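Hello,

I think I submitted the heme C job twice by accident. Can you confirm which output corresponds to this input? Input:
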Amino acid sequence: MSPFIAVFTLLSIVILSIGSCSESSENVNEIVDETDSTAYYAFRNSVNEPPEDYQGPRFELSCNYPTELPAGGADMPWMKIDVDFTDKNPSWSDGPWLDYINAIKRYAFEGQDQNLTNDAGWKADIDGGTRWFHVPWMAYNASAGREYVHGCTSERIASVEDFDGDGVVDIATGIGNLQHSNDASSITHFETWAVGMYNEYAGYAFSQLFPKTGVPSLTDNLPTGLPFPVGTCVVKTLFTTATDQEVPFLVNSPEWTVNRHKMQGDTTYLCERERQAVYLVQVDVAVVDPRSPTNWVFGTFAYNGTLDGATAVERLDPVGIQFAMDPGTFPGIEKDKSEPAYQSVLNDQMTIYEHFGCNGRLCGPVDNPEASCMSCHGGAYTAPMNELDKMGENIPQIFGFDGMCTTFNEQNEAFFSNRKYPEPYFEDMFPDAIPLDFSLQVQVAFTQYKKYTLNAKNTCSPTTPH
Ligand code: HEC
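Support: Only one job matched these inputs. Its output is below.
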């Protein structure tokens, strides 16, 4: 081999295997052992590399974060809609919230393939500029980390009850009458694979929070660059392993291929991955809005194949919005003092089954019905940098705890209480935890970085939902 070819081959191997945003990729000579490079793990595209003969779409981490704050954040379309954050009796169908969530939807899907085909995937570049950015460190976790086709991570496993209420809810149209509910031999749990994108306003925050070394940055013990600036919009597309055979309203849902866990029998998800189909089931959005008591508004859409609508984007059915946690609603407060929730505004006209969240709060189709979007996200904290993150010990427990949504206790009181960055979580709970401004992907980044740098175990074990 000539020296020229040898150098070229070496270069291309290194460039292929390093995320495009790490400092090291600019000067390949610096890399002695890539498996020991913090930047390599921070910015790599996926946990597994595709096989050599793979021809399909390949996820690339969008991480050339803008180093200047883009202009115009206060003029984003949702900021112009006159919504009332104090209205105790908000209406979904006559109120401005539907306009609000639709304004976010229009912005979010601008320039995307309106059928979100597998080949198109999610485009980071819109109108010749990069609009969408990804969070680093999400391709480190051996069990759940990003896969190589679309950068999806493995999320909460949904149960058949999430889609049809276990027959408790009678659906006039017959929609949601799941075959699997009555069929003992079939699969009752479905994996969720999802990918989240932050727009360029958030990207500017990331340019400070996630420098090219891959080491998340703190200034005076707060994350550098946070809170997210006005103009911030986040989108997360969630795909389920359930098909329209199991969940009829998924008919004509966008089908993506993701390199996801293989199944053993009807119950066990193995660590081994294989390219398999998943279907769009939910689209989450979140925007910064300084009028909100938390500085955020969250919203979600259910894919509803029974809606008229020529494109998949048109068949996304808004489920509702949430701008705070409703601490005045049980179990944020005792039952006898509880008032109806008003900090979530829910679409009460849906024609498919939707379980919503805890007592009138918002949750999406594949979310835990005992939780709410913002209660979970309000728990976005990380422990001090020399400690691994341990939910319930040094940061809030968000993935279900005893009595979630059903008893009045301190944990529920905290879970359903309001806060705004950089306030602490709740009273004297987790006093040393560092606030992450409602971003659980940023929490994933800190958690994984600490696992890496503190040499914690990073192994995968098969999951069997119960
Ligand atoms: C169990 C708690 C939980 C609930 C309930 C929940 N989420 Fe999340 N969400 C997460 C976690 C964990 C992540 C980070 C992991 C990921 O994105 O893969 C996340 C990520 C996101 C992201 C990407 C940006 C970010 O903040 O990390 C958005 C946007 C989002 N969720 C919106 C929503 C919306 C809207 C709802 C309600 C419809 C919701 N979430 C309900 C746990 C939750």
